[in-house]
Specification:
Length: 136
């Protein structure tokens, strides 16, 4: 059995505008906003890859179900206890790195080997992420 992990990034816009305000008080262009957003998203996705060893091309890409700016959903064969420890460590790192302006909302749930339907995993992940009990 695999564990599905879903991570959503929250409050990015506020952080981006704070960074732009500090660095470019005289000129706020759409290009700067897009660049800042892309940089933050790529950095966070890279942190997720590193924490969960998803940067291995063979197994990492195969386990990624959704990998976009602001959201990552992937499968892991690691024990659920280890996944929860990694999720908490990742949450704390992102919170500290971005001075409390970016939060990670995350869930993990068991997927039986015969029910690895990516669309069903995405639907379940989205539903669980919306529940208030999953907020960190």
């Amino acid at each position: 059995m695999d564990i599905a992990v879903a991570i959503a990034v929250e409050k990015v816009q506020r952080y981006i505008f704070q960074v732009i305000d500090k660095n470019q008080a005289d000129e706020k262009t759409l290009r700067n906003i897009i660049s800042a957003s892309d940089n933050i998203a790529m950095n966070i996705l890279k942190e997720i890859e590193t924490e969960f060893n998803l940067n291995d091309q063979q197994s990492g890409d195969r386990n990624k179900i959704l990998w976009i700016s602001g959201k990552a959903v992937f499968l892991s064969e690691q024990p659920e206890v280890e996944i929860k420890i990694k999720l908490k460590r990742l949450y704390q790192k992102i919170y500290a790195d971005y001075q409390g302006n970016i939060f990670l909302n995350y869930v993990s749930f068991t997927i039986s080997s015969d029910k690895k339907n990516n669309m069903e995993i995405l639907r379940r992940a989205e539903c669980l992420l919306k529940e208030s009990t999953t907020k960190s």
